[in-house]
Amino acid sequence: MSRMARYRLDDPVEAVRGIGPRWSADLAEKGVERVADLLDHLPFRWEDRRHLLPLSQAHEGRTLTACGVIREVGTSRTKNRGLEVFSVLVDDDSGALKAVFFNRSYLGELLTPGRRLLIHGTPRRMRGGLEIHGPAFEVLRDDQQPEQALGWIPVYERLGPLTPRRLRGVIAEALDGLETVEDPLPARLLERLSLLDRDSALRQAHRPPPTVPAEQLAMRCTPAHRRLAFDEFFFLELGLAIKRQRRRAERRVGGYRISAELRRRMAGWLPFRLTGAQRRVLREIGEDLRAAWPMHRLLLGDVGSGKTVVAALAMAVAVDNGFQAALMAPTEILCRQHARTLAELLAPAQITVELLTSSLTAGEQRKLRERLACGTSRLVVGTHSLISTKVKFARLGMVVIDEQHRFGVVQRADLVAKGEHPDVLVMSATPIPRTLAMVLYGDLDVSVIDEKPPGRQPIRTVVRSAEQREQVFAGLAQALAQGHQAYIVHPAVEGASGLRAAEEGLEEYRRRFPQAGVVMVHGRMDPAERDAALESFASGKAAILVATTIIEVGIDVARASVIIVEDADRFGLAQLHQLRGRVGRGAQRSYCVLLASPRAEGKALERLEVLAATDDGFVIAEKDLEFRGPGEMAGAAQSGYPSFAVADLVRHRDLLLDARRAAFELVESSSGGLTRGLVDETLRRHGQRLRLAEIG
């Protein structure tokens, strides 16, 4: 440590002068335990205090920074509300200006006549002249020149007990006393990517040079922010690369044999020909199964692209080789759909498909668990029930997880842990932008089914305003008269915040179409009641199904050719694309009507037009990422999406690609570039999220 240095990044935060043990416990609850954690709390904006203005040039509505001497102080109360008013008169010889503070009389101990004060704010015209209310200020030391306090001044969000003003003080103290930060990244990498060193980046993120353009600060795209964003990406990708490397070191309990005879038999099970994309993905899975290490593959495919068929054949290979296979899906409706589809596809193979959900009786669940534990049950489909501690497998060899974004990282890992290094196939019918996939599933190999089976009808998508509701109803009446069926989707079960709700919709559509037969499904219904409604719609007894997004996946009714989404602007684009996939499954022309809410305008309608312009799920996913951001799109709470303080997947896509390339090259190279410091920081940032244990 240099002579002037007082703090290291790893020092406890209470070591910083101005914090101490009084506030450290409160900060620890916010995740701030070390000096490094404190400095990770970056300003959310900056005040431009680079230029002093004489008080004689103060004008109403024009923000200024000025310096003067306190000549007078005073206290009073407002007549109408009784607010306590503390005021000081600041004079710089060119003019004077009154600074007013409400309910802050304690400032009288600090702001006394004769002291020099730097103030920043916007004057307003009052009855007695110009005043500046609640200005930011700094009391200058006797030996301090005003120019020393000028520059870009950081503004922080409150952190536990620390107000923005106190935060500025303790962070300044931490930076002033911080030892030179050693850079964990190789110098050659910094040079290649033109990145600032870590020490400079950390200091400039809090104290930007005066020459930094205001636009760069507002967008948080200064060289300092670029380096810190790179670090956020890099250490996540490094953790994923380490995780992938460790998986490659795992070895299977038993190998797979995929004979020509098995392939011939599997082809005979299918009543249709696989698409080229499906055959390509099956070859990739076959290569995984023949490898010495377990498969960990993400299968992305648009709505209706045939992912379930691929999963069925992969699980059949596992069963044929003496293993058990388990498919976990987020809802009982989707589980039942998968169970029916798998049973039909695998009937020629005489593979029994079991279903484990919470709706089974206690006795039924117990008997199924016994069959799984002794190995007589070979293929099971289930919800979260599969990860119950009561469920044990005799020889779990393959895990398939559908609609992966609905499950948390730990839930997926809990199912995988029920086998000894099982093969894992993770599926998503929600196309994921490339950058988001690299962040969420960067340790997985990726396969994409980018081709739909022949015979799928194109879906005409239109956007309609609230004023066009009657026109929409007229079109629906015409479709019903021609024998078509329709889905009506609502954002909520009950009315809230002006949204049209499913329960209201049920009454409205029954009133408008009394002969059609209208039923409703939503997630709060009793499973038996919900299944009865779905069966009524699937059989054609009911022509209209009013629903929430519970029908987003797992519903397949060929005669349903119309879907109307109420308050469509309240949904994400990827979710709307999923809902649209409920139609277009039969021979007739299908329609998707996106009915906007009454207050929808501008950006909201622009988003909906994206759906009308394309049916490419991956193009839609990229647009969704731009509009909504990655956390909301991925479902941050469920997906394990990491929290980035600086990095942005839309603005920093190229930086993510650079970070991923550098991280994986470092782990896969034989030059030993993976240092202890890099590993330690990876563990600190992402060890728990990625389930990385200490690495020797």
Keywords:
696 residues; alpha/beta; OB fold (Dihydrolipoamide Acetyltransferase, E2P); Rossmann fold; seven-stranded mixed β-sheet; seven-stranded parallel β-sheet; 22 strands; 38% helix
Protein described:
α7 (223-249) crosses α23, α7 crosses α24 (676-686) and α9 (276-290) packs parallel to α10. It contains 24 helices and 22 strands. The protein is α/β, with parallel strands linked by helices and 696 residues long. Among the domains are: 59-139, Nucleic acid-binding proteins (OB fold (Dihydrolipoamide Acetyltransferase, E2P), Beta Barrel), CATH 2.40.50; 260-291 and 306-428, P-loop containing nucleotide triphosphate hydrolases (Rossmann fold); 459-614, P-loop containing nucleotide triphosphate hydrolases (Rossmann fold), CATH 3.40.50.300. The two termini are 27 Å apart.
Short overview:
With 696 residues, the protein is of the alpha/beta class. The chain contains 24 helices and 22 strands. A seven-stranded mixed sheet has the order 6-7-4-3-2-5-8, with no helix packed on it. A seven-stranded parallel sheet has the order 12-13-11-14-15-10-16, sandwiched between helices.
